[in-house]
Amino acid sequence: MSDLTAKMRETAKKLFEKGEVVYVIGWEKGRFPYQSPPAFITSAEDCDRLIWDEFCLAGTAKYLLDDKYPEGKIGLFVRGCDSRAVNRLLQDNQIKRENVYLIGIPCAGMKDPDTGETAKKCRECTHPNPVVFDELIGEKVPESDKPERFDAVNELEKKSPDEKYEYWAKQFDKCIRCYACRNACPACNCRECYVDQYRVGWQGKQNNRAENQVFGLTRAFHISDRCIECGECERVCPMGLPLMELNRKLIKDLNELFGPYEAGVDPEVKPPLGLYSEDDPEEFM
Amino acid sequence: MKTLAKNKLNEAIEILAQESKVLVPMKVNGVSKFAPWGSEGTLDFEAINTLLPPKDALFPHTEKMYSYKVSNQEVTDLTVHNEGDQQVIFGLRPCDMQSIKCMDDVFLTKTFVDEYYKNKRDKLVTVCIGCTKTAPTCFCDSMGLNPSQHEAADVQMYDLGDFYGVEAQTEAGEKLVAKWQNLLGEGEVTVPQVACTLKVDMTGVPQKLAKMFESEIWKNFSRKCIGCGTCTYICPTCYCFDIDVKNKGNEGYRFRCWDSCMFSEYTRMAGGHNPRPSKKERIRNRFLHKLEYFNERYGKNLCVGCGRCVAKCPVNVDITLFIDQLKEVPVNE
Ligand code: SF4
Ligand code: SF4
Ligand code: SF4
Ligand code: SF4
Ligand code: SF4
Q1: pLDDT confidence of B193, banded at 50, 70, 90?
Q2: pLDDT at B239 exceeding the cut of 90
Q3: A28-53: per-residue pLDDT in tens?
Q4: Which has the closest alpha carbon to A79: A267, A232, A278, A271?
Q5: So what's the ipTM on this one?
Q6: Ligand 3: which residue has its CA nearest to atom 3?
Q7: What does the DSSP assignment read for B161-189?
Q8: Exposed, middle or buried by CB within 10 Å (0-12, 13-18, 19+), for B258?
Q9: Are B134 and B98 in contact (CB under 8 A)?
Q10: Closest to B47 in 3D by CA, of B135, B177, B155, B169
Q11: Which of A73-77, A194-198, B60-64, B256-260 has the lowest mean pLDDT?
């Protein structure tokens, strides 16, 4: 057992013993060594299920939406990405800060179960240290801006419009519209997604190039300035769509238009599209 | 047994492709699935099972049912779309063959025959290639299958290294094999035996589940589910669909497309009531359908043990762990 796993269990146990939390969300071992899925811990005795290893890939924060009016505090283990997701939900008025107790864990990066290499979302992560927490366990890890995470976008921008269309059309031909990307995404926190407003008919149900693109592009635009770059959408996509290229194209454009912004890092700084400022560009007016 | 040298495989498939659409395991744009012979992508006969099952061939993701034009409030030009080519699925695995049997039960038996399915099924010939390796997530032998062969396939082939053993098991299979007459040899064949490493014990599971509608296990087991459609869309036996229309001006068409019991709006009724309001009810439905209801109605499991959902659920909601945990759950009678 790693030191951090022991520390995790001990911390969670203490929280239960003090009556601080009603349950805790962390990770546990799955059937295979390369699986450490999210776990819901409901008692002090249960805490020994918790685990910290290189396969804790899934995000924890989105589960807060399943229980918006909890009977007490929810204990949530947060890495950098999860903590930004918490900020996302706070800023979008989805949860109340007093309903969560955040145990921060600095994260050295997870492994991709298929390759055994550092997971893509972790290679591209700019904030492995939690940005918000009530208590921190473990040592802080080095972090950097990683401008190279925009490399793929820069490459794509060199393509002609037709080539770009061809590239994305081919990607969206693969989409099976399982909506895993949306369901894993902390920025997709609408009470009712436009996709599910079937009576209005925004989103047709057929699986074809046009409808798939409508979904992918609409979602990308909806979350554009609120995307915290956790990479969960891309990780969970069973068809391997390069969704982060889409998200980062929008982030890059927003940065160029409204100045640099990283969503979910500081809950006091509003997303550029959620804020009116007199020096906003207005080329189209 | 008849034999087919592997270096004659392309020629053999080419012969079939003269008369039918032949679907073969391929990697297309990074996705492993069954795709038409000759289409863009790379052949992948090494795949243990493809990421996407072959169910699309019989039950397309989206299928136009009929189209119409309307003038003066009258329907004109009503056209039913139920064409479809002769098809061969070449190289499907025993688990996927079993999934076709499950779908046959659903779409062809018990009073209602689905003409759209039937038309495709009547025109389908199945060529199964037995597995000689299993993936860590395969558990078909625990679900009563034999990973080496499936008796329902029209043609059963055995991978024997440099060549295949070839056995016709039905009349359609005989006809198909007859086309290969000039390519086939004859040889002694020992059918390779293989077993899954992942095991579950299905003894008494359907019977136990029949009494577990109100069990606590559903809440606990469903908590981490994110309610996506991954497990159901990559499952070879999930067959839920929705029917909708697409209209433009005075014309339109009705289509059906896959739907998933894991989606929140799947059970939403007119008026807004939702009898399966949370993931607890949805997970319960999925697992009971796979392991209990289907047994009750058709005498077989609706899970064939292909392991796709075990491998691909983004949060590892694992049907095999569920079956394991069931052992420890008390039943309140
Ligand atoms: S769009 Fe993707 S990367 Fe951005 S917040 Fe949502 S899941 Fe995370
Ligand atoms: S896709 Fe758009 S409407 Fe749907 S949940 Fe995401 S942000 Fe909301
Ligand atoms: S997760 Fe991937 S396949 Fe599923 S809807 Fe999103 S983009 Fe499409
Ligand atoms: S069980 Fe897994 S794959 Fe299925 S809906 Fe839930 S999260 Fe998605
Ligand atoms: S439930 Fe899972 S293992 Fe069973 S047939 Fe479906 S995808 Fe395969």
Answers
A1: very high
A2: yes
A3: 999 999 999 999 999 999 999 999 99
A4: A232
A5: 0.96
A6: A175
A7: SSEEEEEE-SHHHHHHHHTTTTT-EE---
A8: buried
A9: no
A10: B135
A11: A194-198
* Contact between residue B149 and residue B158 where contact means Cβ atoms under 8 Å apart: yes
Packing angle, helices A209-223 and A161-174, rounded to 10: 100
| Ligand 5 atom with the shortest distance to the CA of B307 | 3
User: Ligand 5 atom 2: the closest Cα is on which residue?
Assistant: B309
Residue A247's CB is within 10 A of a number of other CB atoms, namely 23
Which phi and psi (to 5°) does residue B210 adopt? -60, -20
Kindly indicate the confidence band of residue B332, based on its pLDDT and cuts at 50, 70 and 90: low
Q: List the beta strands (DSSP E) in B174-277.
A: 185-186, 241-248, 251-258
A180 closest CB neighbour out of B52, B230, B321: B230
Q: What average pLDDT does the segment B211-220 reach?
A: 93
pLDDT at A285: 61
CA distance A58 to A85: 12
Q: How far, in Å, CA of A255 to CA of A261, rounded?
A: 6
Reduce the DSSP state of residue A221 to 3 states and report it: helix
pLDDT of residue B303: 98
**Per-residue pLDDT tens over the stretch B248-289:** 999 999 999 999 999 988 888 888 888 888 899 999 999 999
B227 contacts B282 by C-beta, under 8 angstroms: yes
Residue type, B67: S
Minimal-distance CA residue of chain B relative to A33: B136
Q: What is the mean pLDDT of residues B38-58?
A: 95
**Does any CB of chain B come closer than 8 Å to the CB of residue A30?**
yes
If contacts are CB pairs under 8 Å, which of residues 66-85 in chain A contact chain B?
66
Pairing of strands A21-27, A38-41: antiparallel
Cβ contacts (< 8 Å) between B312 and chain A: which residues? Answer: 238
Beta bridge partners of A280: none
* B228:A40 CB<8 A: no
Read off the pTM.
Answer: 0.95
- State the amino acid at position A220 in one-letter form: A
Nearest CA in chain B to A196: B265
Residue A128 · residue A79 · CB < 8 Å: yes
Backbone angles phi, psi at B225, to 5 degrees: -60, 135
Q: Which helix (H) or strand (E) holds A249?
A: helix A243-258
Instruction: List b or e across B3-33, with b for residues whose CB sees 16 or more CB atoms inside 10 angstroms.
Output: bbeeebbeebbebbbeebbbbbbbbbbebbb
Tell me the percentage of chain B whose pLDDT exceeds 90.
89
Ligand approaching nearest to the C-alpha of A237:
3
**Which pair of structure tokens corresponds to residue B52?**
């996407």
Contact criterion met (CB below 8 Å) for A151 and A124: no
* Residue B157 near residue B167, CB atoms below 8 Å: yes
A18: number of Cβ within 10 Å: 8
Give the torsion through C-alpha atoms of B140, B141, B143, B144, to 10 deg: 130
* Per-residue pLDDT tens over the stretch B98-154: 999 999 999 999 989 999 999 999 999 999 999 999 999 999 999 999 999 999 999
